Structures are given as C-alpha cells and as structure tokens.
C-alpha cells in the first residue's frame, strides 16, 4: 500500500508508537502445516495410500507353469486308463483356464533383469530360478524351461542369463582449479559492478610493516576484515605500548575484536581479564566509545562461547547504564558525549540484544526492546534503518501485515529525503542510494514471504544497479562491529535462495559468482562461500564440485582474504 504525500507515519517523539510497530500482542498464526500438507502431503498420509504393491509371491506363482509336467512320461502307467484319461481331460481344461487367468495378470510376472535395484526378490530366491538343485527334479519343479527338457536323464543345469550389453560410459575429467581460476578472472565483470575498484587482485600481499602503528591503522584493518593482521598488529604495538593509557586501552579493544572474529575465545577471555573491571574504566581523556566497545565485545564473547544467559544479562546491564545517563541528562559527565551520540550507542546495544532474541525465537521480547527506542533523536535516514530492522522482526514472526506497514513507513521517509523535504536534507548521494537499496531489500523479503518469487527476484536484482560502486557499510560505522549487514551481499544471497526455490540452481550459482567476481574483497565471505559450496554439490558431480571449491579457495588466497573460515568451503 502507498502512503499519500501528506500521510506521515506518527512518531514525532517519545517511543515508537504502535502505529509503526503494530500491537504488542502475538501475531495471527496461520496454519502452515495445512499449507505444507496440501502441497507436499505428509509422510504419514502417503504411507497409508492405496498404491499398488509389488508382491514377491505373485512373481513366484507366475513362474510355476500350470502345464503338465514333462516328467509324467517316466511315471508308471495308471491302473485305470479310462478314469485316468477323463481325469487328464479335466486337468487340461483346468490348466487352460489357469493359463488364461495367469496371462491376464501381467502385473504378477517376474521383473525384468534391467531393474534389480527395486528389490523384487532376495538372493536366495533368485538363485532358485537359475541354478537347479543337485538332486533329481520332481514334478513340482519351478524351472521356467521345464517343458523344454525331454527327460530327467538329459536334464542339465540351466545356464545363468547373459548380462545385457552395457553402453560405453563417457567420462569427462573435471577441470582443474587453476584453469577455473583463470577462466573466472578472465570473464568480464557485470555492468552493474563496472565501477567497482577492487575487481582486480592486488599486486602484492599486505605486510605488517606496511601498516602504520596507529589506532587508525587498526580501524582500517578491521574495515578490511583482516582479522589475523589485526591481532598481529595489535600485539606488536602492545610490545612497546604508548605512554597514554587510553591509547593502550583502545589498542586492546581492537585486539580483542580481532581475537573474537578469529574464534580465539580463550585468548579473548584472557585479554578481558587483563583489562579488569570494565565498569571502572575512566572515560576522561580517551576515546569515549572505547568503554562501550569493550562492554559490547564482552557480551559478544559470551554469545560466541554459548553463554546465552550471560550475553543477555550483559547487554541488559549496558542498556540500563546508557538509558540512565540519557534520562538524567548526564551523558557528558558519565559518557563524555552528547545526548545524540549516547542515543546512538543505546540503539546499537538494543539492536544487538534484539538480534539475539530473534535468533532465540523470543520475538515479543525483541519487539519490546525495540519499542523503547527513542525516536526524537532519529533523523529520517536513521528512521529508515530502524523501521526496516523492526519490520524484518515482524516478518520473521509471520506478521506480514505489520511488516508491510513498517516497510511502507521506511519508504515514506526515504522519499522525503529524496525530495529534500525531510529533517535530514543534507544526506549524501551514497547514503540515499543505500537507503533506497534497503527499501528494495524490504520489498524482496516481503515478496518472498508472500511466495511471490518472481517479484522477489526482480527486487533483489534491482539492488545491484543501485549500489554498484558503494562501499561496505562496515567501513563507516562503529555499529557494524556488532550489527554487520551488507545490503548488496544480503540481496544476492536472498536472490540465490529465491532461484533455488524456483528450481533454477544454475541461476543461483551464476548470481553468487557474478557478485564475487565484481569485488571479492567485499563479497567473498563465509556465508557466501558456504552457500555457493552447497550449490556446487547440488549442480555438479563430486570431482567438479571439489575443483570449483578449490577455485574459490585460491581466489581468496589470491586476493589476500583473511576472514574466510576454511571450513566454509566444505572440501
């Protein structure tokens, strides 16, 4: 639904109203099980269907020929010829009727030898059709060629049927990973990424000596996702620590961030023990965000260690501390920042907790956290981000109506910025392009939830035209240290999922490879690599799939990427 030019979503001050976020009650729950059963049928119902069964006993009965046994010639003559003849005539009539009945039951015939995998008979029974027993046959013999045997004296073991001729198999060697890398790099970059600056591999690898011994150098390493270099550089700088204790503390904060990103949780816990009580850290004379960053990293470490309760408790503690400073109007004294910056820090902590609660399926509690966001400190650009995030929570809950309303509010504020009539009229073209891409991402996710796959594919594909030269958001905000989201990367990942739902695996692979080729430094991350490796397993044979995974691994090495976990390649 479209808002008119004068229909402004409410929310001028205070907390986010119910008009934007919807009621706090539980959303309407649609019977997804009925939908699934109507589409795919449940396994229980399928097992009780009246499908025709292939009986092993019917095959055995059909092999027992009802014609007179040829071994009757060797039997002694009967004592009553006339009675025996009448009995033989009656027996022949019965046998003819049985032949007609057996011919009409074609489904009871023995299976063809071309389909042994269906398991019609086990090995012991199938041998009775091929190899005769050692003793002399009896009139009840089950040989299919019993009528061709003139007498028991000339009976010979029947030879096993000759195997059917097999067609020659054509085997094609899987291309080598080196050849795939050359082909990958020679392919032209998609026009939507034509302005990308990182499409070509670097001339040489980055050395620690090339990085300046400054805090800005550590920030640059984090923005480039060079976790190993970040930890090594921080440790080398701490070998000769600066005289300013606040600078040393900031170096330790980046060292801690690198250790957590690398998965060295025990070492990260040791760093926190060295720092001591984080609540006692002074904010005077140093970077104000360092104590907040350390508290967020402490909570993030608890989450990575599987301590969910500690993670929630630490984030609640940080939210209470920040909210208390804002409500008392003492952010300068307690945090050394103004109210607007403190409110931004509070939103980071709130969304970090909301994301965790969503992963824990605690949707109503996540919405309650988001409902306490103070909108009077939000500009239009920030409103778009907040509304989009809350709308996605509603979307994951299955409340599509509330999600659509929130997404429309985000679209309205984006259009206000585009026309220059909002309270953030001074936004740059890059920020505006990112907001428009975020609105398109909302549309694609909503279409996908509504099972409108083609519309979702179109929305995700349109994002690539709008952000062809935009840099990753993580390079611009401290918030992305804990709320990592790349609009383009998310769009392409969802595009691949939609293509997979449309049974077009080739399109999904092509979309991910096209994105990686445009800017491997930005888009070749663990999530993309894992999804692409899974698609390779679906599309190619084992040898080719392994070669293409090795290709991605070599491309990551060629571009000197440190943040891709080797386990994501699934080799």
Detailed description of the structure:
By secondary structure, the chain is an all-alpha fold. It has 25 helices and no strands. It has helices spanning 18-21, 32-40, 43-47, 56-63, 81-104, 123-127, 177-186, 215-223, 227-239, 245-262, 265-275, 289-304, 308-327, 331-335, 339-359, 363-370, 380-397, 400-419, 429-449, 453-466, 487-501, 505-518, 520-523, 526-539, 542-558. Helix 9 packs antiparallel against helix 10 (245-262). The longest helix is centred in the first third of the chain and has 24 residues, at 81-104. Mean pLDDT is 74; it is low at 1-13, 17-86, 102-155 and 471-479.
How are helices and strands ordered from N to C?
Answer: HHHHHHHHHHHHHHHHHHHHHHHHH
Low-confidence stretches are: 1-13, 17-86, 102-155, 471-479
How many DSSP H or I helices? 25
What do the pLDDT scores average to? 74
Oligomer: single chain
Helix share of residues?
55-70%
Number of strands: 0
Largest sheet: none
**Radius of gyration, taken over Cα atoms and rounded to an integer in Å:** 37 Å
Main structural class: mainly alpha
User: Strand share of the residues?
Assistant: under 5%
State the distance separating the first and last CA atoms: 47 Å
Identify the overall geometry: globular
């Amino acid at each position: 639904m479209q808002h008119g030019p004068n229909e402004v979503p409410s929310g001028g001050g205070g907390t986010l109203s119910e008009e934007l976020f919807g009621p706090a009650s539980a959303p309407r729950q649609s019977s997804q099980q009925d939908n699934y059963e109507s589409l795919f049928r449940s396994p229980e119902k399928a097992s009780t269907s009246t499908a025709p069964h292939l009986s092993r006993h019917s095959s055995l009965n059909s092999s027992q020929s009802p014609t007179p046994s040829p071994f009757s010639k060797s039997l002694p003559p009967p004592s009553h010829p006339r009675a025996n003849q009448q009995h033989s005539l009656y027996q022949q009539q019965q046998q003819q009727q049985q032949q007609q009945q057996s011919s009409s039951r074609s489904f009871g015939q023995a299976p063809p030898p071309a389909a042994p995998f269906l398991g019609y008979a086990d090995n012991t029974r199938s041998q009775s059709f091929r190899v005769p027993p050692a003793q002399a046959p009896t009139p009840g013999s089950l040989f299919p060629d019993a009528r061709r045997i003139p007498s028991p004296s000339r009976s010979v073991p029947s030879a096993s049927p000759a195997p059917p001729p097999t067609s020659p198999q054509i085997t094609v060697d899987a291309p080598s990973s080196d050849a795939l890398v050359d082909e990958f790099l020679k392919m032209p970059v998609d026009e939507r990424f034509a302005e990308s600056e990182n499409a070509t591999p670097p001339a040489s690898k980055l050395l620690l000596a090339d990085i300046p011994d400054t805090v800005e150098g550590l920030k640059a390493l984090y923005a480039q996702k060079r976790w190993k270099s970040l930890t090594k550089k921080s440790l080398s700088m701490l070998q000769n620590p600066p005289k300013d204790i606040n600078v040393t503390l900031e170096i330790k904060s980046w060292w801690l961030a690198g250790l957590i990103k690398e998965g060295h949780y025990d070492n990260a816990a040791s760093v926190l023990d060295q720092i001591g009580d984080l609540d006692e850290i002074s904010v005077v004379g140093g970077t104000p965000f360092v104590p907040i960053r350390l508290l967020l990293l402490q909570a993030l470490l608890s989450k990575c260690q599987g301590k969910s309760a500690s993670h929630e408790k630490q984030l609640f503690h940080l939210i209470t501390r920040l909210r208390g400073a804002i409500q008392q109007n003492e952010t300068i004294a307690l945090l050394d920042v103004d109210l607007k910056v403190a409110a931004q820090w509070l939103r980071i902590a709130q969304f970090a907790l909301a994301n965790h609660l969503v992963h824990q399926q605690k949707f109503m509690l996540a919405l309650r956290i988001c409902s306490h966001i103070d909108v009077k400190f939000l500009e239009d650009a920030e409103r778009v981000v907040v509304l989009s995030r809350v709308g996605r929570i509603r979307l994951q809950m299955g409340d599509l109506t509330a999600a659509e309303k929130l997404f429309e509010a985000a679209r309205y504020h984006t259009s206000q910025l585009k026309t220059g009539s909002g309270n953030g009229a001074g936004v740059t073209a890059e920020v505006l392009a990112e907001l428009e891409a975020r609105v398109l991402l909302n549309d694609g996710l909503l279409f996908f939830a509504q099972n409108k796959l083609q519309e979702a594919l179109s929305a995700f594909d349109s994002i690539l035209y709008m952000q062809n030269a935009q840099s990753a958001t993580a390079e611009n905000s401290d918030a992305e240290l804990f709320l990592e989201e790349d609009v383009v990367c998310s769009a392409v990942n969802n595009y691949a999922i939609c293509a997979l739902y449309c049974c077009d695996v080739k399109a999904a692979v092509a979309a991910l490879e096209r994105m990686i080729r445009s800017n491997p430094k930005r888009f070749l991350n663990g999530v993309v690599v894992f999804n692409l490796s899974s698609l390779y397993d679906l599309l190619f044979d084992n040898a080719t799939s392994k070669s293409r995974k090795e290709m991605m691994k070599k491309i990551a090495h060629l571009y000197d990427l440190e943040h891709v976990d080797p386990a994501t390649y699934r080799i």
